[in-house]
Amino acid sequence: xxxxxxxxxxxxxxxxxxxxxxxxxxxxxxxxxxxxxxxxxxxxxxxxxxxxxxxxxxxxxxxxxxxxxxxxxxxxxxxxxxxxxxxxxxxxxxxxxxxxxxxxxxxxxxxxxxxxxxxxxxxxxxxxxxxxxxxxxxxxxxxxxxxxxxxxxxxxxxxxxxxxxxxxxxxxxxxxxxxxxxxxxxxxxxxxxxxxxxxxxxxxxxxxxxxxxxxxxxxxxxxxxxxxxxxxxxxxxxxxxxxxxxxxxxxxxxxxxxxxxxxxxxxxxxxxxxxxxxxxxxxxxxxxxxxxxxxxx
Amino acid sequence: xxxxxxxxxxxxxxxxxxxxxxxxxxxxxxxxxxxxxxxxxxxxxxxxxxxxxxxxxxxxxxxxxxxxxxxxxxxxxxxxxxxxxxxxxxxxxxxxxxxxxxxxxxxxxxxxxxxxxxxxxxxxxxxxxxxxxxxxxxxxxxxxxxxxxxxxxxxxxxxxxxxxxxxxxxxxxxxxxxxxxxxxxxxxxxxxxxxxxxxxxxxxxxxxxxxxxxxxxxxxxxxxxxxxxxxxxxxxxxxxxxxxxxxxxxxxxxxxxxxxxxxxxxxxxxxxxxxxxxxxxxxxxxxxxxxxxxxxx
Lengths: 297, 297
Prior knowledge:
Number of strands of chain A: 12
Radius of gyration of chain A: 23 Å
Oligomer: homodimer
Domain D-isomer specific 2-hydroxyacid dehydrogenase NAD-binding (chains A, B): 98-265
Distance between the termini of chain A: 28 Å
Strand content of chain A: 15-25%
Largest sheet of chain A: 7 strands, parallel
CATH topology of the largest domain in chain A: Rossmann fold
Strand order of the largest sheet of chain A: 8-7-6-9-10-11-12
Structural class of chain A: alpha/beta
InterPro entries (chains A, B): D-isomer_DH_NAD-bd, NAD(P)-bd_dom_sf
Largest interface: A-B, 60 and 60 residues
Keywords (chains A, B): NAD, Oxidoreductase
Helix content of chain A: 10-25%
CATH class of the largest domain in chain A: Alpha Beta
Protein name (chains A, B): 2-hydroxyacid dehydrogenase
C-alpha cells in the first residue's frame, strides 16, 4: 500500500513514492481516500472539498491554494499540517496594477473613445518613467509591483506600517504625499488602514497626481477622492472601491480622470502555473520528508 | 571671451567653462551667436533651428535630440561633429508597449465598456506572466521592453535580423510562431521587414495569440490581421498601422479583439528628463574635451 496524494489536476509531476489521486472538487470523490496523506484542496470549488477531511484517516498535510486559511483551522483534524497559497496571486495583482497605472498615464480612456469613432488624433501623454511612486504596502505583492516599476525606471518610495531600513513608516505620509506623482495602495483592510487616504491626505497630493488602489477600497475615502477627480485635480485608477460593488449610479464611474475595474486584479491565468509549481514542490518536499513551504500550522 | 553653448532649456546644469545661451527655437535667436561652439537643437521646433548654422562661425559640435539625423548632414558645416538622440525615446516606447500588451491581456476594453454603464461584472482574465513572447526587433527599444517583460515573469524569445548567441534570426520565424502567445514587433520600415507578418505567418500563430505592433505598420499585412481578429482567432494591440492614419471607416477600429492608439508610443513625458540628462552629460564631455556619446560624425 503506497501513500497517496489527492490533487486537483491530472497534469502534475508527482514523486514516484506517492500515488496521485485526482479530484477537482466536482462530482463524487474518487476511490482510495483511505491512503491519502497529502491533500491539495481544489481552488474555488466551494464547500465540498472541505467535507472530505473526516474521510481521510491517513491525512498528514493539507495544501490550500488561497492566501487566507483561517476558515480551515477549525475543520482540520489534530496533528494535520497546513500550508497556505501565499504568493500565488502576487504577480497577477502586480500585473493588473501596472495595467491600471500605465493605462492611466498613457491616456487609454482617450484612445478607447477615439477608437469608437475611428479618430486618429495624437496628443503627448504623461509617462511612468521618472515618476515618483509612493508604494503603500510593501509585502510580497508590493515587491512584485516594485520590480515592474523599476524596470520602467520609476522612482519607488516604499511605505509600510512601521519604518525599517529602506522603507518609510506610515507616520511619514504627511511629508511624503506632497512630492508623489503616483500613489499605489496595496493594503489589507485593517483598523490601521481604514480611511488612510482621507480628504486631508488627498488634498496634500500635488495637482494631477494619480491614485491607484489594488488593495482594499476602505483605505481611501471614496467621497473625497470622487470630489478631487471631479474637480480635475487628481486622477484615479481603482480595482477596489468602498462600497463594493460600486453602485451603478455612483458619480465616480463616469469621471474623465477615473479608470475602474471590478476587483479582478488577482483573478488571471498567472495563478494556475504558479499553483501547480508550488504543488509540485510541496509534493516533492512531502515525499522526501522536508518541511513544507508556506507552513502555517 | 568664453566659449558658449546654445541650449533649448534654461534649467540645465552647464559647466562653468561654457556660457549658456538659451533658445527654444521660437522667436528671434539670442545675442552671442558668434561664440557658440556647441549647439543643442530644439526638439520638434520645425525648420527655424536648422537655419542658424550659417550664423555660428565658432560651431564645433551639434546635438540633435532625434534618433534620426540624415536630414542634418547636408546642412552641417565641414568639421562640425554631430551627436544623435539615439535612445531618448526607448523607454517611452517600451512603456506604451507594456500598456498595450497589459490592457489587452487584462481585458481593458471590456472594463471601459462596463464603466460607461456602471456595471460591476467580474470575469477571469488572461495574463502576461508565463506567456511566451516573441520579441521581433532586439535593439535598444527591444531590450527596454524585455526588462519590463522579465519583471512580469514572461518568457522572452528575442528575434533579430540575423541569429546571434541568445537571439534567434528572422529566418527561424516559421518554427517560432506556432509556440508564441504574444508577438511584439518593434521593427523599422525596411525592405526586409515589410510584410514580415503576412497571412501565412499570422495563420501559423496559435488561437488567441496577441499581435502588438509599436514599430512600423508596414511589418504586418493589415488586411490579413483584420480578417484574423474579425474571426475572433487572433487579437491585436497596435500603435502603428498600414496605412497610417488608419482611415475612419476601416473595420479594424471597431473589432472586439483590437486596441488601437494613434502612433503615440514615443511621445510622452519620459523624453524630456532623458534629453536633459544627455545634454548635460554632453556639455560636460565637450567642456573637458572628452569624445561625445552617440557621435554619428
